[in-house]
Each structure stands twice: as structure tokens, then as C-alpha cells.
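Structural prep section.
Before we set up the soaks we want a predicted structure of the protein with iron/sulfur cluster in place, mainly to decide which crystallisation condition to try first. Input record follows.
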Amino acid sequence: MSRIFSGIQPSGELHIGNYLGAVRNWVRLQDQHECIYSIVDYHAITGTYEPEDLRRRTREMAISLLAAGLDPEKCTLFVQSMVPEHTELAWIFNTVTPLGELERQTQFKDKASRQESVMAGLLNYPVLQAADILLYRASLVPVGEDQVQHLELSREIARRWNARFGEDFFPEPQPLLTPTRRIMGLDGQAKMSKSMGNTIGILETDEAIWAKLRPAVTDPARVRRTDPGTPEVCNIYHLHRAFSDPATVEHVATQCRTAGWGCIECKQVLLESMTRELGPIRERAAELRARPELVSEVLYAGAERCRAIARETMREVKERMGLAELSEVTR
Ligand code: SF4
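Run finished without errors. Recording the C-alpha cells verbatim:
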């Protein structure tokens, strides 16, 4: 079995964009590979934040992931800061990563252009990402298209470190492209993202989801009920493709093209499909909230398992680099 690593920001409750774009695939992969999944809180502190809020969001993300189907019997789930070797390896990788490579990263340029003062952590974010993956010597990383450049940098870092210290010690991780198209926000303008306020949370009630779906942007050609539309340009149609069965998706396309129904009817059918999938997830989340010790146990056991792998990687890394080991110092 190949080892897979993937991380998700502790943004609180999962929204359907990251559920469809990543987590639904993670659930499938846990049956096929050895999967290590992390809530990457060290990555979340490169911008401004409140400590209590970060703690709450981390917890909420763990509940969402477990409710969405991550099974601690089949995969490992942990919080990144519970395994300090991530930052230790990141420092080491900083010493083999050219500054120019980091400055060229599109995500860095985008984010830096929107921040008044840019911290070094934002620039070095992809180095920590390389450490996240390579600490477990993972060979596959499920990514969306927008993450491919970062992964290429992880491969470059692995090559550089290997060339200097370790021949083939670190595998060059390969991308496993997530097979769901990018889900746009309800405004139809940009990728679904919490910071844009255009999301639907996977744990929201039907009433709350309907309040968002009802005014959501559709094909602008459908001004009147009798105007035919083009489903492919409509985000609601793409959500049907993600949540509805194939027969319903076909029906949606026909009804849209022939103006057989209005957008409100189309959205009502979508809500039914979403409830079928998200209802059981909401129930599991409520059970987990009622037993918080279960969530803590899963995260603790996951971190213990990861620390054992991480310690072994760092022992080898330090030995090859001529760095001191604790056992060596105390001998
Ligand atoms: S009928 Fe459905 S697919 Fe067509 S434009 Fe309206 S919401 Fe979109």
C-alpha cells in the first residue's frame, strides 16, 4: 500500500467546497492506501487569528472530518502541532530551498499582495508543506490543481536534500489529482471559500441551506421562467452533479434546456439530494459533540502514531546531516 499524506486548514466546520474537493475523496482513499490526514494548525498561524478561536476551529474541523466519514480504524487523523517534528524538518528544508523558488510561488504572490505586512512564515509555508509530506516519506498526495505548484516544490526539496545527504531517502511525492471539479461559491464569482462568505457548511440545517440556495446565482440567461438555460454554465447544475444521482442530473439538464421548470424547483430538488448525503453526517457530528472525549482520543492516538514515524525519520535525517541526537548528547 502506498502511503498518502494530506492536510486541511482548521477553518472550523467543513463547507461543501472542501468536502467535495478533498474530503469525500479522502474517505474513499482510506480503503485503498495507508492514509495520514492532518489538521494543519501551524499553517493557520501565518495570518492574524485569535488563539481561542483557532482551538475551537481545530476541534470543529476534527468533528467535521470524522462525521464526514474518516474512520480512525482505517486512517490516521491528527493535529499538526501535536507532532513538533514538522517544524524541525521544515527548518532543515529551509536550508536547502532557494529563496527565488519561494518568491515565485503563485499563492505567496497572491496572498502577499493582499497583506499589509508580510511575515516570513507566509513565504516559507510551502517548505513546511514539504516537511509535512516528507516527514512520513509519503509517496502520494491528493491535491487540487491549485496545489500542484506547491507539490512540485516539495519534490524539488526532496531532490535537493537527497542529492546532498541521502540518495533516495525521501521519495518524490506524486500528485493524485482529486477527481471533482472546482466548486464555485454561491455567488458564482469565485471558488467556494469561507473568507468570501459564499459557502454552505456541511453541518448546516436544511433551513439554513435553503436560505442560501434560494438566492444563489444561476444561468443569467434564465431571466423569465420560460427562458431556456444552459446547465453547464450554472453552479447549481454542478452541485447536482456532485450530490444527485445520474438520472436526476439528466432530468435537471433537460428541464433546464427546455424551460420545463424554474430555478427554484431545480434548487428544491438539489436540497433533497444534499439532505440525503449530509443528513447522516449531521447526525454523526451531533453524536461526536455529545462525546468530546472520543474526538480527543482519536486525535491523541493519531498523534502518537505519527510521532513514532516522525521520530524515526528525524533520527535518520540528523544522522545523515551530522546533527546531534538527544541520546548522543546525554550519553
Ligand atoms: S434550471 Fe437549474 S441548472 Fe438551469 S439555470 Fe436554473 S438552477 Fe441552473
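Observations: The CA atoms of residues 229 and 257 lie 5 Å apart.
Flagged for discussion at group meeting.
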